Amino acid sequence: MKLLNIATIGASALLLAACADDFDTNDYKVEPSEESAQYEWLNDYGTLKSYVNYANVGPLFRLGGAVDAANFSERGLVYALAVSNYDEITFGNHMKHNFVMAEDGSMDFGKIRTAIEVAKGAGIKIFGHTLCWHEQQRGSYLKTLIADREAPAAEEKWNNVLSNSDCEGDDLSNYRMNQGDGQGIIEPNVEVENGNRILVVHTNASPANSYDAQFFVTSDHVFHEGDQIVFKFRAKADIAASPETQAHKAPGGYLHWNMFGNQAITTDWKEFEISKTLEAAHDGMQTVAFNLSVTDEANTFYFDDIELSIYEKVGGVEMWVNLTNNPDAESDDLSSFYMNQGDGQGIVEAAITPAGHEGRGFAVKSKDNPTNSYDSQFFIKTTRVFQEGEQYQFHAWVRADHDAAVETQAHKANPGDYLHWKMLGDVNFTTEWKEVTITGTIDASQAGMSVIAFNLNKDTSANTYYFDDVEFSYMFKGSSIPLTPEEKEQIIADDMKRWIYGMMEACDGYVTAWDVVNEAIADGGNYGVKYGDDDDTHFYWQNYLGENYVRYAVKYAREAFAEYGGNPDELLLFANDYNLEAAYNNTAKTDGLIRTIRQWEADGVTRIDGIGTQMHVSYEMNPTAQAKQEQCVVDMFTKLAASGKLVHVSELDMGIKDENGNTIKTEDLTYEHKMLMSDYYKFIVKKFFEIIPKEQQYGLVQWAATDSPEGSGWRAGEPIGIWDLNYARKPAYAGWCDGLSEGSNL
Questions:
Q1: Nearest to residue 530, comparing CAs of 519, 514, 538?
Q2: d(Cα 465, Cα 350) in Å, to the nearest integer?
Q3: Which CATH number fits domain 156-314: 1.20.1290.10, 3.30.70.940, 2.60.120.260, 3.40.50.300?
Q4: Which of 144, 356, 491, 563 is the most buried (most CB within 10 A)?
Q5: Which whole-number Å values give the CA distances from 743 to 86, 163, 315, 604, 684, in the listed order?
Q6: E strands of 551-598, at which residues?
Q7: What is 409-424 written as a DSSP string?
Q8: DSSP per residue over 634-680, as a string?
Q9: Nearest partner of 606 among 556, 643, 569, judged by Cα
Q10: Per-domain boundaries in the chain
């Protein structure tokens, strides 16, 4: 989340006691305002950290606060507040990607280095926020790294669609005739004139119709309205005649009566060249038909040097681009493949089996006697959001333990996020491996799909389904060549490494705890990894690295920390997220985050040390809603405790809502509201110490020092601080102090 900017401060009504020895707090003493005099009882409180019984909390516990790095480095009021009240500070913005990286990819760590030196001097720790996020990223730069390669320049030229135009070869596949003698459509006769091969067509006398005898010039190319074409040929006849020309599909597949009009053929060889832009009536044309029966007498026509050309731009790109990672299952990357076996575990990564079509493959078991066909499912996930009209192609080798038909659905960005009941139609599985290729075009009902779901319980008996070489591709058309998924993965991984190594070098081992990944979990579906669209300030690393992006970040963070002077045993890496305490989903996102961390760690190498829960909460004036929210806070802490991970309440601030769920702004706040918020702070802080085991207590962070002014980018106009905008203490301050005191003495 964005940190409230407190660079501009009015007259202070608070004496910040217990500041660093070399800081003169007298500069900030002023007489309290008439309004603040109402809260004189708050002046009896000491600094926040004075209420922590450090002898009775976890050995790693730190009381934290969020500040602006630039303001902190000025060693003014923000500095005084920080060193007086906190053990550790989090910089809201200055350690984020787009604050350090410029449009050209260069990185400036100057402000961070300055802030670290100031923090060292004050003896206060810094929590690193954040190494890998999708927001506040220099997406404009990162996108240039994976831009399409330039394709060969398009060449505009006439393209002849006929083979053997000079008739000297034996391939007559583009030429046919019907002499009106009952033999139907056959190859034309070939004669030699002066050593030159020519095509010959005879007509019968007294024809009933001009099209009784026909000569066809045909191809596999389908012409469409608007195409520019040129038709060239040489011809003569025994009797001068002007045969008609028609547009056909295949020879004899009549389309339109007029193609090039009548052509005057004489008894001497004559060259013809006719240009035309095709009309709607000619759309679908493949064949030019000459209606030769235009004389009462029998006649013979001779043709040679025949060309039918279309004007084209040659050099553009049209190609299938696969969107699945590890399609052959030969690596351990399962970021594109998930399953729900109907066993209550929900949506999890697919299982790899040695019994693939060639080597390893994917295996999914379906439950017996299901209620619905979708009780057991296999999911193929892509990172592309398909739009109506786009072409797709599914390819796989498949088999099953017994024959069965499987339905397919379209889902949105996450497996389980249903969109439409039909995607590929039914796929028939047999006990023998078979190759399946299905090509189609996204229709309006499928627009927005990213995931194919295979409903394995159309067959109601338990079965095992096997997949291998699983690709889902889209048809790329353009004047450039897209990088392959493998190329993009390598490029993005390399730049993530450059970024993390740069930050670790700048911190020189001083910052020992980090949000290695921030807000990685989706808010719905199976609460798995979140994907989205990139723009100039958003960049989803996972779009290119898959769910392994966290493994990359952890690896680079640990390597770089050790390389630049840190003790690897001291580095702590957290997965930080919001809405873990949410009542609307009964803390389901907490379950999703814990489950996903276990998946990241399943490689036996990746280690996430702790979980950060942001807790941007609101007090609910509706008693029922507030009671449920408090229960969800307890439930969240209970689940986090059971995870065995360190727990960091990383961004705790609080708003307030009326009985109808509407936000109450600072200007409308009553004394009663303030006291209720104070009590809720006390409840949360105390529950942290009560539920989280001491060895898992990493810390609590008071996120928004002051209330948010109108126009702020974060909770604008809300009373989220424990100081007001003049830095006068609020009852919320007492709630923190009381919660710290009672909680740390449990």
A1: 519
A2: 11
A3: 2.60.120.260
A4: 356
A5: 17, 88, 71, 36, 10
A6: 572-577
A7: EEE-SSTT-EEES-SS
A8: HHHHHHHHHHTSEEEEEEEEEEEE-TTSPBPPGGG--HHHHHHHHHH
A9: 556
A10: 1-92+615-746, 94-146+483-608, 156-314, 318-479
Q: Residue 347 corresponds to which tokens in the numbers above?
A: 């949506």
> Residue 715 and residue 312: Cα distance in Å, rounded?
57
**Cα 226 from chain centre:** 38
Structure token pair of residue 322: 């696969």
CATH class of 318-479: mainly beta
Residues 623-659 have pLDDT tens digits of: 999 999 999 999 999 999 999 999 999 999 999 999 9
Cβ burial 380-402 (10 Å sphere, 16+ → b, else e): bbbbbebeeebbbbbbbbbbbbe
Contact 213, 203 (CB under 8 A): yes
Residue linked to tokens 């307890």: 634
Report which secondary-structure segment, H or E, holds 569. none
- Measured distance CA(444)–CA(362) in Å, rounded: 31
Helix, strand, coil percentages in the chain from 3-state DSSP, rounded to 5: 25, 30, 45
Length of the chain: 746
Amino acid present at 32? P
Domains 156-314 and 318-479 share a fold: yes
Mean pLDDT within 561-570: 93
Structure tokens at 172: 């007559």
CA atoms within 13 A on the CB side of 575: 27
The pTM (predicted TM-score) of the whole model is 0.66
Residue 444 CA to residue 448 CA, distance in Å, equals 9
Can you name the residues that pair with 289 across neighbouring β-strands?
216, 246
Q: 657 is written with which tokens?
A: 């809502």
Sign, CA torsion 544/546/552/553: positive
Three-state secondary structure call for residue 9: coil
SS3 state at 619: strand
Superfamily of domain 94-146+483-608: Glycosidases (3.20.20.80)
DSSP label at residue 42: G
Question: Which residues, including other chains, have CB under 8 Å from residue 125's CB and lie 6 or more apart?
Answer: 62, 87, 88, 89, 119, 511, 512, 513
Q: What's the pLDDT band for 36 if we cut at 50, 70, 90?
A: low
- CB atoms inside a 10 Å sphere around CB 14: 22
| Residue 150 burial by Cβ neighbours in a 10 Å radius (0-12, 13-18, 19+) | exposed
| Strand-pair partners of 395 | 437, 471
**Least confidently predicted of 120-124, 411-415, 521-525, 593-597:** 521-525
Provide DSSP, 2-50: PPPP--S---------S--TT--GGGG--PPPTTGGGGGGGGG---GGG
Residues whose CB is less than 8 angstroms from the CB of residue 47 and which lie 6 or more positions away in sequence, other chains included: 16, 17, 18, 84, 85
Contact (Cβ atoms closer than 8 angstroms) between residue 695 and residue 59: yes
pLDDT tier for residue 25 given thresholds of 50, 70 and 90:
very low
